[in-house]
Design brief:
The complex is a heterodimer of chains A (216) and B (41). Chain A is mainly alpha-helical and 216 residues long. Chain A has 6 helices and no strands. Chain B is an all-alpha fold. The chains are: A mainly alpha (216), B mainly alpha (41). The A-B interface holds A 25, 27-35, 38, 42, 81, 84-85, 88-89, 92-93, 95-96, 194, 198, 201-202, 205, 208-209, 212 and B 1, 3-7, 9-10, 12-14, 16-17, 20-21, 24, 28, 31-32, 35, 38-39.
């Protein structure tokens, strides 16, 4: 695992060095445009965490496997971390560009709803923490995880479906300039490595916690 | 057109990102410590 973390740190540092120092500022937005390079990858990692949580939840519902439940919890915690990055960086970009921190644009609203579902999941798992109630907590959690992942395509397509103010440069036919596109690709790779590493650590702690419940 | 000065917003966003990451690792550290204590008992 040490090699994985070394690779993760190198790719992240290299990626940040490239996008922060190697790419010139965008003329109409200035420095704040650079938020894009970690806002978008964080959103993708949130989707990935939700997807892992949904797969874990479905497997848990079918097989009642505690490993699948640990995967679901780890996935949801990963989604929470990256969701938090998305929801803090987005408004800080929006303030100088749109003039407001928050507006009820379809993509912002759907992302907010998913974040509430993630919070609901984490609270539900904490409330049903003792051994007897754990199965009930896992069931409630699985339902919330499936609801949250069902929102992912809605978030992604919301820009097209309802034409809000949120930019969709990835779907723009003119696309991004090559340097921006390369920077984004490096950062997506870097963030996926980070998300996988964090997800794995969350999984290990969940498994340890599960085993400690069994031994208690 | 003059480039707007948005260094402050970017800095806050970047520091928030680092803080969230640091917070996550601190959380993981304390969970591992708690589990270690449990298994040592």
């Amino acid at each position: 695992m040490i090699w994985f973390w070394a690779a993760c740190v190198i790719v992240n540092l290299g990626g940040f060095a490239y996008v922060l120092l190697g790419i010139p500022f965008e003329a109409s937005q200035g420095a704040v445009q650079k938020i894009f390079f970690f806002h978008v990858p964080a959103a993708f990692c949130m989707y990935a965490g939700l997807f892992a949580a949904a797969v874990g939840s479905v497997v848990y519902l079918i097989k009642k496997s505690s490993v699948a439940d640990c995967v679901a919890r780890a996935g949801m915690k990963t989604a929470f971390v990256f969701g938090l990055i998305v929801l803090t960086s987005g408004p800080l970009w929006a303030k100088p560009i749109w003039g407001v921190y928050w507006t009820w644009d379809p993509r912002l609203t759907t992302t907010f709803v998913v974040f509430l579902l993630i919070l609901g999941y984490l609270f539900a798992r904490n409330i049903f923490d003792d051994r007897q109630a754990q199965a009930r907590g896992a069931l409630v959690g699985a339902i919330l995880a499936l609801l949250a992942v069902a929102h992912v395509p809605i978030i992604h397509l919301s820009v097209k479906l309802w034409r809000g103010v949120h930019p969709s440069v990835l779907r723009n036919p003119e696309g991004l300039p090559p340097t921006y596109s390369l920077g984004l690709q490096i950062m997506i790779l870097a963030f996926f490595l980070l998300a996988f590493g964090l997800g794995y650590l969350f999984y290990q702690t969940e498994k340890g916690e599960e085993a400690s419940h069994g031994n208690a | 057109m003059e480039m707007p000065d948005t260094y402050l917003e970017f800095s806050i966003a970047f520091l928030s990102f680092l803080a969230i990451l640091l917070g996550t690792f601190v959380y993981l550290y304390f969970r591992v410590k708690r589990l270690e204590k449990f298994y040592r008992r």
